[in-house]
Specification:
Structural class: mainly alpha
Oligomer: single chain
Number of strands: 0
Number of domains: 1
């Protein structure tokens, strides 16, 4: 299990790749291209990604046989639930 442990923090990983993308766009501006309807495409990808994340979270919760709000959590938040 030690081999699967995170060696590089995810934030550092994201920063390194963000800097690499910025550097690539600065060095090779001729590789840029205009996509017609790019805001519509970006919105569609964002909606698809959010929907997939929501569905996969629900599926993982179902497979784990876990409740979305376990009774212990509700008992700490609302005393009426446990009575």
């Amino acid at each position: 299990m030690q081999a699967l442990e995170l060696k590089v923090p995810p934030v550092a990983f994201s920063v390194v790749f963000a800097v690499a993308m910025w550097a690539a766009s600065t060095i090779y501006p001729e590789a840029s291209f205009a996509l017609p309807g790019n805001s519509v495409v970006a919105c569609a990808f964002a909606c698809i990604g959010a929907g997939l994340a929501f569905m996969l979270t629900g599926w993982a919760t179902y497979l784990a046989n876990a409740a979305a709000l376990p009774k212990e959590y509700l008992c700490r938040r609302i005393s009426r639930v446990c009575s």
